[in-house]
Amino acid sequence: MDWTQAIEQYEDVIVDFDTSTNVYRLYWEFMDEGYCGDFDPNDDEDSPLLRFTIVLVDDKNGEVALEDASYCTLNDVSTNREDLVKLGTNILATLATKYDNDYSYKHELEEMSWVRAGGNHVGA
Q1: Residue 9 above 70 pLDDT?
Q2: What are the pLDDT digits (tens) for 10-66?
Q3: Is residue 86 assigned to a domain?
Q4: Residue 117 region, left (φ>0) first, then alpha (ψ -120 to 50), else beta?
Q5: CA angle 120, 25, 111 (to 5 degrees)
Q6: What whole-number distance in Å separates Cα of residue 110 and Cα of residue 47?
Q7: Number of domains in the chain
Q8: Residue 1 domain-assigned?
Q9: Is 124 contained in some domain?
Q10: Which pLDDT belongs to residue 108?
Q11: pLDDT tens by residue, 86-97
């Protein structure tokens, strides 16, 4: 498959999630990643995969990076924008439940990186 057009037309998708305690922001980004590391457009078995990165939005400090909150996913750049927003909202809700209550969220975010937009869990 020729991914060039999908990559060129891809726009970053940003999802915000407010709780009574915090505001979280999730970025969907293409960072040249594929199934085996760097995306190889000459490999028919590879796909340009999206990464999600989550930050805490703070009125004083702007965006504050969260530790262990950035993962490459199995969703490629051709994934429907609406599906990415839905999945991003689910990821943020999962994070907020843990972070707002001072629990570790790393394992849950790792698991969410295996979920394809549209709801299919495919691994780990």
Answers
A1: no
A2: 566 889 999 988 999 999 999 999 998 999 999 989 999 999 999 999 888 899 999
A3: yes
A4: beta
A5: 30
A6: 20
A7: 1
A8: no
A9: no
A10: 92
A11: 999 999 999 999
Tell me the whole-structure pTM to 2 decimals: 0.86
| Residues 121/94, Cβ–Cβ less than 8 Å | no
Q: What percent of the chain has pLDDT over 90?
A: 65
Q: What is the C-alpha radius of gyration for the chain, rounded to an integer number of angstroms?
A: 15
| SS3 readout for the chain | CCCHHHHHHCCCEEEEEECCCCEEEEEEEEEEEECCEECCCCCCCCCCEEEEEEEEEECCCEEEEEEEEEEEEEEECCCCHHHHHHHHHHHHHHHHHHHCCCCCCHHHHHHHCCEECCCEECCC
Would you call 105 exposed, middle or buried from its count of C-beta atoms within 10 A (0-12, 13-18, 19+)? buried
